[in-house]
Amino acid sequence: MGVPAHLIASTLNISVAQRLVRKLCQDCKEKTPVQKETFPIHFITPDYLESHYIAKGCSKCYHTGYNGRKAIYELLPVGKELAVHIKHNELQIDNYMKQQNIKTLSDQALFMVLQGETSVDEVFALLANH
Description:
- The chain is built from five helices and four strands.
- The two termini are 26 Å apart.
- The strands form two sheets. It has a two-stranded antiparallel ribbon. The chain has a two-stranded antiparallel ribbon with strand order 2-3.
- The protein is α+β, with helices and mostly antiparallel strands.
- The chain has one domain (5-128): P-loop containing nucleotide triphosphate hydrolases (Rossmann fold, 3-Layer(aba) Sandwich).
- Helix 1 packs antiparallel against helix 2 (80-87).
């Protein structure tokens, strides 16, 4: 956009990313064992994930397998340390986010899969990037 990095670093307070994730229909979701090929390429399947749910479809969800949506968020506060990264155009901040215990969109999407709230297919794009 042509804005100098030092101006962004000095004025940005927080960065927010959000996505809407479709929720599985509670009446027809089906539990299935985890098969590694079900998950996105380069995604490391957690050892503790033994099963997950898939969308089946019924009359209550108009045969989509989903009913409703849930927002997931990634909030990144811009403090002094992150401002320094921004000023120096160091935008690979995955390690910084892990150190600060910041939950990413992918973390929250995986949590929804673990809780049986959504399917792997629904969060495929989020999980495939990380």
